[in-house]
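pasting input
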Amino acid sequence: MTGPSFGARRLKLGLFVQETGHHLAAWRHPAATVDDGVSFARFHRLARLAEEASLHFIFLADTVAVRERDPAVLGRTARATVLEPLTLLGALAVTTERIGLIATASTTYNEPYNLARQFASLDHLSGGRVGWNLVTTNSDFESWNFNRDANPLHADRYARAKEFAKVVRGLWDSFDDDALRRDKPSGIFFPAEAMHTLHHEGPHFRVRGPLNLARPPQGHPVIVQAGSSDAGRELAAETAEVIFTAQQRFEDARVFYADVKHRLVRLGRRPEHLSIMPGLMPVIGRSRAEAEEKFAELQALIHPSVALSQLANQLGGVDLSPYDPDGPVPDLPETNGPKSRQRLLLDLAQREGLTLRQLALRNAGARGHWILRGTPADIADEIEHWFRGEAADGFNLMPPVLPRDAEDFVRLVLPELRRRGLFRDGFEGRTLRENLGLPRPPDRRHAAAQPEALP
Amino acid sequence: MTGPSFGARRLKLGLFVQETGHHLAAWRHPAATVDDGVSFARFHRLARLAEEASLHFIFLADTVAVRERDPAVLGRTARATVLEPLTLLGALAVTTERIGLIATASTTYNEPYNLARQFASLDHLSGGRVGWNLVTTNSDFESWNFNRDANPLHADRYARAKEFAKVVRGLWDSFDDDALRRDKPSGIFFPAEAMHTLHHEGPHFRVRGPLNLARPPQGHPVIVQAGSSDAGRELAAETAEVIFTAQQRFEDARVFYADVKHRLVRLGRRPEHLSIMPGLMPVIGRSRAEAEEKFAELQALIHPSVALSQLANQLGGVDLSPYDPDGPVPDLPETNGPKSRQRLLLDLAQREGLTLRQLALRNAGARGHWILRGTPADIADEIEHWFRGEAADGFNLMPPVLPRDAEDFVRLVLPELRRRGLFRDGFEGRTLRENLGLPRPPDRRHAAAQPEALP
């Protein structure tokens, strides 16, 4: 089944899944079911919903810490307890059949051998449906759980991440695709020349290899990247096949899109081999007024201390307590946190003359991602506008309350997108890579003959 | 359903699962199916078999490296490619209902925060059926994949392991059992006092905590330990609830058993709170002659280079190439490898006057574990003898060819054990901890009132 396309482009949609929804106060909403806590059933239901709708993937975030010092503030959020994504993905891999499965993992607080193995195993378990959202981790909270006083510097994190990704991809190529002959009479399980020992020696890692695992069904699991700073874009252009980014305005998104695609081409890659997918929180109403009301209902449930705490984290862990919440947003010092996110927030405050509290509440709903409120037709209009206007190849959907708002999107917005010929109504292939229209990296034996492979 | 017991003792049986079986040459055997490679279906079938037989658990080994330098020797084994155990356990957690699920993970090549999270998540996914086999990793092969030239020294590994286990258990107690109130009207997801920040600072780790995950259903996943050196026994007596050990002779096993139980009591723990479970490879025949024939058939399939390679690894990575394979076993220097295993092998060679090649072949079949050949009655006799004679609380079964020999054990030996009143015919509880008769560690709020908790 081939979906509609515009030139080589096809609209991609992922479902970013979370316990009770992406709105900061989702768990307090009457429509939210929060009784079952860290429940597999909830994630399984969402994955099946995405699969039945032939979305491209579900997406799992990750942090290796709680990101708030004050237990009383943390206790007002549902963010302090989450299932670990790679073990959860193992469970989803064997209880779904077609949907792509993307999980986040940090290059700063893992070792490449361990992560290469876990993603390769997940790719085997799922029959080739796994992706790795590579993050460098942008807060100090994590560092305190890993024997450090602070997160490594931004530049160091990205240098490590680049080498980390290289090692992981090298390890995935430890065996040729057809290495395992399993020939009982001769006793040859695999011929020596079908195994490749990596012998990596770099500034951050020495990894001999080989990985103790057959080559993943996709060759390499799909690589996703979420950093939007200059270093993040460059790493994405070099290594990634999907970018998850925070973009709030069409004009900014177009500039970002053009910049990343340009970098890609400069590196000898084809523009359609990296999908740019901003986060999008759709707030769907039968009328615009209903959508506004739905959103206001959620916003009213946010506790101010929680909003300010989240803003402080998104600004890279600054201490906002010295500032008047009802005064202007101060001229904050540059931190070691997520650079592009800081810029986005400070620009927004300046543009609209927001106070600290107003900025906190604006940011709170979707953690700085684009919140789109309207009727199903309004939402389809904007998606079409961004897609046709080359501001996005698709979106990572962040429904405010889950599962309710994911179900509404599938029921109300998807048919509208399909009616316009914008979205497929089935899977094109078996693997995530096939469904994203990505080439399969050749194994070491075939790599020499195919110079157009990933760098 | 309560099983039979001898005083407080009940026979425990686990099924150690592997791709094609525990015999080194299993994959070459005509009965072995090796076509599906790293296949979830195979592991799922074995887990369901164990569950239907109400065994206590399935057990997954792990190494974070291939343990052979020569690709041609490695290529003669089926050991170079295995699924990663924690992601595999995620898949098994949601596709089984009662069976315990134990996976091995190294304290030398992981960080406690990551491992605490993955095991806690698995405990949530499985409804409280998970165990962690804590190993320190005993070969240099692993170190080369983790930026090192050699494995840390034995004493350092155990010092790190002890602190690692302490941090992991502390992190599992980050939330009280009933912490998550999820009170929508007040907006209190959990009260501040129900969360406990660890603030661990030790020689090997600084981990602030808390873990970002609700307390596991079992409180703590069951802790299994596999080292049998003096340091290994001491760590087990302090932290473990199951010991997986290699014991070949009743007399030696009795001494080991008495020593470990004595250590336990000395530390204020109850002897029945740690089950001693040697590995056991049952080779089952309708007659003794058939069992011998079955075993000989497998032994004949071992390539000598593979047997010698495995022996060298079990001796701690010594280089055996200077020695004549048909000469006596040389007086080898002590290495940094698994101390108890080295001793066991050298004692065996001396006792029986074996050549290097003979020792290699003797060791090859079950990697130094006890191989028991005979009729179902013979095998039940020996199990009963070891159990009643306090040489073992049960066994970790290592069938030579899988699934065939696991099916034979369930079909032929289990009924014999049940007929003798030695083995249960159903699960006593819902969690692994309940099924092993282990106490549930109280949460921090209740710990003060229950001083008999785990140390």
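fyi Residues 1-6 of chain A have pLDDT under 50 and may be disordered.
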